[in-house]
Amino acid sequence: MAISPFNPPVRTLMGPGPSDVHPRILEALSRPTIGHLDPAFVGMMEEVKELLQYAFQTRNPLTLPVSAPGSAGMESCFANLVEPGDKVIVCQNGVFGGRMKENVERCGGQPIMVQDPWGRAVDPQKLEDALQANPDARLVAFVHAETSTGAQSDARTLVELAHKHDCLTIVDAVTSLGGTPVKVDEWGIDAIYSGTQKCLSCIPGLSPVSFSEAAAEKIKGRSHKVQSWFLDMNLVMGYWGGGAKRAYHHTAPVNALYGLHESLVMLQEEGLENAWARHAANHNALKAGLEALGLSFVVPESERLPQLNAVSIPEGVDDAAVRSRLLNEFNLEIGAGLGDLAGKVWRIGLMGHASRAENIVLCIAALEAVLAEMGAPINTGVALGAAQKVLGS
Ligand SMILES: *Cc1c(COP(=O)(O)O)cnc(C)c1O
């Protein structure tokens, strides 16, 4: 039986990622593949590094895209910084903090968990208490933008507390980078990882990371080898940091890196501050529409992420049926709840290229049509106007 080429349907991606990929990036991916040690390619890699330093707001020389998705960036931060026996304080307020715990354990470290309710930011006082109770802790890890709930934590304050107690910090910025302020040097973050498929509008499969001078020192001075050969920064740097004398480590995903380069050039053209402002403004428009429909947000306003909007599913509404109708009838993808919030919330992403007016209008109109037809308890005829009023202001 002959299998035909795969032609994906054209969707609007308003879930937790991947988000809509800009056509300029798709075009960049189709440019001719060249060798990963070709001088022309090496020159492009230097630019990717510089553009990532801009996106992360850092001068860290150890800034590069790991050749694998966000989870690999997470793993590379833990694998390089946690040594067997290290005590690591992990602040958890959603799904991804739980994965940090897994990482610490698999590196032979001892996780000390600080729990906050799902849908809330990490409470700095709880971290302070944990730091005082564990003076031998070496690291603090937390998720800046919890995509499973839509909560944003105060990274600057959490890092400051960690440093006061001589701990290095690992920060998950997979969903925050490019969508909401991330200031690595100003906030003093030691290790940070992100993903390309959320607010950078690029394809999934790459994970930008950055390590401070102090983190790089810790990695160089380890008493045990990093247990992952692929993610060992001491080896990866022979390729990414080698200048003209680059050594083969692994074959870089050449075309995917063209895509990342293009997305970062676009970020530079727009300007980071303008990208943050766009995400904030579009969140306000979507919020006006969703609230006019009668839906309520999970996260308190001051702790909300503009790029990930978690709203409660109205009583009696069939979660999966709504999402499948949105997909099949409107080509619109929104996200389901994860973990503790499964079946209780929808997660509506406004990330990167997906964060634009036409998507807000489509999402509100489609949700209203589907919910009204299912007899859900919502207000009809007012939501689009409410969103449009904010969009026009
Ligand atoms: C998406 C996400 C990840 C994982 O990224 P993948 O590219 O799916 O591996 C990690 N942390 C957060 C907060 C995320 O949103």
What would you say this structure looks like, in words?
By secondary structure, this protein is α/β, with parallel strands linked by helices. It has 2 domains: about 25-270, Aspartate Aminotransferase, domain 2; about 270-390, Aspartate Aminotransferase, domain 1 (Alpha-Beta Complex), CATH 3.90.1150.10. It has helices spanning about 25-30, 40-55, 70-80, 95-105, 125-135, 155-165, 185, 215-220, 235-240, 255-270, 270-295, 320-330, 355-375, 385-390; strands at about 10-15, 60-65, 85-90, 110-115, 140-145, 145, 150, 170, 190-195, 205-210, 310, 330-335, 345-350. The strands form 3 sheets. The chain has a 7-stranded mixed β-sheet with strand order 2-10-9-8-5-3-4, with helices on both faces. Helix 11 (about 270-295) runs antiparallel to helix 14 (about 385-390). The longest helix is centred in the last third of the chain and has 22 residues, at about 270-295. It binds pyridoxal-5'-phosphate. Pyridoxal-5'-phosphate binds next to helix 3.
